[in-house]
Amino acid sequence: MKSGKLFYILFLFFVVISQTAFPDTGVNSPYSRQGLGLLGDHSASLNKPIGGTGVGVRLNNAINLLNPASYSSVDTLTFLLDAGFTLQNGNYSENGVKLNARNASFDYVAMQFRIAPTVGMTMALLPYSNVGYKFSNREDIRLEDNDYVSSTNTYSGNGGLRQVVLGLGWSPFKFMAIGINCSYLFGEIEHQIVNTYSGSSLSSSAQSSSTTIYPSKRVYDVRARAFELDAGLQLAIPLKNGSKLVIGAKYQPNMPVKGTEYIYNVTYDVTDDRVILADTTGIDNAFSLPEQFSAGVSYADKKLLVAADFSIGLWSKAKSFNQYGRDNMRMSLGAMFTPDPLSKKFLLRTSYSVGCYYQTSYFTMNGNAGPNEIGVSAGFKLPLFNTFSSLAVTGQYASVSMGNGGGIRENYLKLNIGLTFNDTWFAKWQVQ
Questions:
Q1: In terms of Cα–Cα distance, which of 12, 37, 2, 8 is closest to 362?
Q2: pLDDT tens digits, 184-204
Q3: What pTM does this model have?
Q4: Which stretches of 95-215 are assigned E, i.e. beta strand?
Q5: E-strand spans in 315-389?
Q6: By CB atoms within 10 Å of each CB, which of 36, 98, 189, 306 scores lowest?
Q7: Which residue blocks in 90-143 are alpha helix, DSSP H?
Q8: Tens digits of per-residue pLDDT, 389-403?
Q9: What integer is the mean pLDDT of 332-354?
Q10: What is d(CA 114, CA 117) in angstroms, rounded to the nearest whole number?
Q11: Which residue in 84, 35, 74, 24 sits closest to 220, CA to CA?
């Protein structure tokens, strides 16, 4: 085995271990308390700089997880390995109060290769959803003797679902490709609400009055697993001068989620560390995955790629914590330009990208629609030495806010780093 191939295998092994041993979600958002958390966009290093667009994108030198039909475009002797991580700075503001938080996360790892003349295979590990937050609120409670005690509710959560993907893409005709992804979702989500009391009246007035105040804790714990399927189609229409128009579509059916939601309630006496009341409730079939439709189109020639996507998820028919969500949609647009892909000059072989997107939330809050998100991105893909491998660097700005102007406003600056290793693996030795 060549040393280069050994390096790829060791690199892949390191990535998988880091995903399982250090499952940092890279999220610090109160909105991840809703539903299954903040949903991943399945973007690889190809998709992130062009606004997360890819349903209608078909390239032979990059992995596109947004449509399994694209897998058949991989070259016969090519092996692709793609991995990415994100550095993020978030700014959160509400009623004049602002807070900054920094996070880092390993996003995904994927590999792709051809197993037959017109069939490509892809395997990937990536997040389906992420949960991470901690915040609190406080209020004063008046007792019977008109004294007050301060009550604090602390909300925290962590976890999320991970997704293992195995996909095949087949091109039965030169102008058409179809594909399917089979995914296994697994993970744990935990939410906690801790109620505590403080103040001088807690040890005097509260105890002397007929009012008895005890701290309490409620925990929502979910260990979930599910299978997900999505099927894709791409039609490649040749145009003049070697350019092409690609029309793509993808469909995901509604799927059940196996697992039980456990709700733990504990009330305790802090004076003698005694549990007063404890109960556990289990709820089966509290989750399901939505039916989703996606469509995309792209124009590509030797230097330029322009693409647009639209998708809708029917979350109003899917459950999260035994509650139905709301249908959401996502629109994205992006472009990538490479001055001269075959040039020996470094800057001429570098690809430059821009993109934007807009998406609505899939959950409701107090009967109202959840926050909407708008984002822009720009990046470049650097060729690595004299190989077909590349380093993609993307800067993103995203703003998340409620449509009515209330709630928490979140602004993010993200730096996405993606490494794509492109190597020839399956060539046969020729003996003279």
A1: 37
A2: 999 999 999 988 877 544 444
A3: 0.87
A4: 97-116, 119-142, 148-173, 176-198
A5: 319-320, 323-324, 328-337, 351-359, 364-365, 368-369, 372-383
A6: 98
A7: none
A8: 899 999 999 999 987
A9: 92
A10: 7
A11: 35
